[in-house]
Structure formats: C-alpha cells, structure tokens
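Re: the request from the purification team.
They wanted to know what the chain is likely to look like in 3D before they choose a buffer screen. I agreed to run a prediction and write the result into the notebook, where they can find it.
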Amino acid sequence: QVQPVESGGGEVDVGGSLRLSCSVSDDKRDSMAWFRQAPGKEREGVAAIDSFNITLYADSAKGRFTISRDNVKNTVYLQMTNLKPEDTATYYCARTLIYGTLAYQLWPQSYTYWGQGTQVTVSS
C-alpha cells in the first residue's frame, strides 16, 4: 500500500496536545510531510521530514510541533503541543516515494501520495 494512513486526530482544549501518526507499509524512508486544510482555506504545509530526517516547519508550527520518523515502525509522527483554535483543520500526511530532500518540502505539489486525513479540533 503506497498511500499513507493517518491516525490520532481528535478534539482537544486550547493548550492541549495531540500526536498524529502516519503509517506506510514499506521502508523507503522517502520525503514525507504533514499538511492541513481548514474549511474555506487552501491546504498548507505544516512540517516535513526528508530521507535523512532533516526537518522543516512552517512558521505557525515552529516551537509547538515536532515531526519525527520511526524507521522500525515505518511511521511518521506529528507531535502537536500548545494547540490553538487556529490549528483546527483536517491534517493530511503526504509522501513522495523519492529518497532524498525535496526542493520545496512544504509545497503540496511536491507530493504524490496522500492519506485520507484526520480531523483535529481545538476548542476554546
């Protein structure tokens, strides 16, 4: 299965934490990323990780979100802390099947395979 599968979404209070998981069925260690899309807004990149585990974050995520990869479980995580109402969105995991570093890691067009998404709701 090439498509990633997300899990871990839910509803949390402002200031709370959630950890999203993105599982794949292979060990290609390709460049992957988390995106999010709120109603009426464009899909935006949140965090990316390349094949060397070098990470990149959107300004909105810096200092609050952490992306990581477990090579044994073939899973990429997004740990989110100090959540705000504006973090409410459907979160998507995306992958490229490309080993290396992408030129535009937070650009949706850089990714080929997408998960179905998981909803994150932050209540004030």
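For the purification team: The longest strand covers residues 89-95.
Please add any questions underneath this entry.
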